[in-house]
Structure formats: structure tokens, C-alpha cells
Amino acid sequence: MSTDSTATPSITPAIHVLHNRVILVTGALEGVGRAVALACAAAGASVILSSFEQADLEPVYDQIVAAGYPEPAILPLNLDTATEPTYLAAAAVIGDTFGRLDGLAHCAVSAPFLSRIDDYDANEWERVIRINLNAPFLLTQACLPLLRLAEEAAIVFTADRVGRQGLAYWGAYAAAKFGIEGLMQVLAEETRASTQMRVNSLDPGILRTALRANLYPGEDPHSHPDPVTVAPAYVQLLGPEGRELTGQALRVEAGRAVLI
């Protein structure tokens, strides 16, 4: 989920469990994506920062460089308007620059409003599905050849409780997140026997994000944890600790990825 772009999560230096790994993080502008990108960099990864505009990502880039972590790369991707050729071109850039991809963390999400199914605008339904389900599928598909070149690649799809147990008014976002769970399970089964790739979904829980504040404007944002608190769970799944896990729906508990 996204958070206020003015907020800068603090980072605790991590053991370099991701040393020499190339990790692509979507939604890296803010919220969970930003926290995960910073945590991966602190853990020694070369992080590919992805969001809508290059200029938006420059502060994150500068923060990583200033901290002395491996220099990141920026990969602008508009998940609302990108087409299959866009994703294939993005994967080609990654391949030309790094030669492989060790990890893909899908952290970008969009949930613009809550609405009854009776009232849900059809165009908005398609847009929310496009960003939250179609885009992760197309990006993953385009990156699979690069992920197969890694010794042990990891894909982490960001899940949500409303995509595991439906809740009223979450509409297209919930439907997309249910789809993400299915995509994760199918891909995990298809890669389980033939590669060292592992594929999992992770629910970070309710966090102090701009997305949450937009949907629940009367809620005290400080009643929820900062996204930085869940970043170690992503590092866990992207690194050697997660190598025995694939096809699992997990949640974050005390900064760790645990089975639901």
C-alpha cells in the first residue's frame, strides 16, 4: 500500500543477505514499496526502483546512494497505461543492464475508493483490475526469462486480507487480490519442479499509508504501524531464508513472514 511521500522510513542496517542480488521493486515511490526498496538496498541488493515517473523516484535513489548502499536503477512504468510491449521492453532493459533478475517484489497497489457492487463504475472496475492484477501478471511474464537465469530467484506478490476473505465494498481491489493469490499458486506449481524459483504472496497487514488514509479519512493514521516494519519480511522471502518456501500465502507477524 502507498503512504505519504513526505514520510521517510528509518532503516536499520541489515546483514547483507541480498548481496550481489538484483531486485525489482514496484511501487517504490512510497509506502510498502519504498520501505522494501530501502531495506533490500540495506541488505546489499542492487535495487531497480519502479513507479510511474522517473522524477518521483529520484529522492529514493538519492537516499540509497547517500546511505552508501549499492547504486540502484530507475525503471519508470505506468501500470495503468502500459501494454505487453511496454513490459517486454522493460525486461529487455533489465537484461541489458544486469543480465539477470534475482527477485521481483510486487508492491504497487491501487484502491481508489470503496463502493457497493451495485454502484461500481465499469471503467473504474477495469482500471483497478488492470493495475492490481493484469500489470503484475504481464510484468512477471516478461521477467520470467531473466528470473530463470538467476541461481535462486524469488517473486513476492503483495497480498491483502480482503483478497483472502472478501469484505463488503472492496470491489475490484478485492477481486484483483483474489486473482493474485491464484496467479501465485499457479506459477508456483509451474516452476516448482523445473527451477529454483520460488513464488509466494505476503499480506503486510493494515499500515499507516496514504491509501488507507484516503479510504478511511476519519481514522487516526498513527493507530497503524509504519510500512518500514514489514520490510524485513520481504527481505526474508527474497533472500536465502525464503528458499524453502514456494506457493505459500503468508502474512507479516513481528516483522517476519509466517504462514497464515
From TrEMBL:
Domain of life: Bacteria
PROSITE patterns, sorted: ADH_SHORT
Gene3D superfamilies referenced in this protein's UniProt entry, alphabetically: NAD(P)-binding Rossmann-like Domain
Gene Ontology MF terms: oxidoreductase activity
Keywords of this entry: Oxidoreductase
Entry similarity comment: Belongs to the short-chain dehydrogenases/reductases (SDR) family.
PANTHER family referenced in this protein's UniProt entry, alphabetically: ALCOHOL DEHYDROGENASE
Name of this chain's protein: NAD(P)-dependent dehydrogenase, short-chain alcohol dehydrogenase family
Source organism of this protein record: Allochromatium warmingii (Chromatium warmingii)
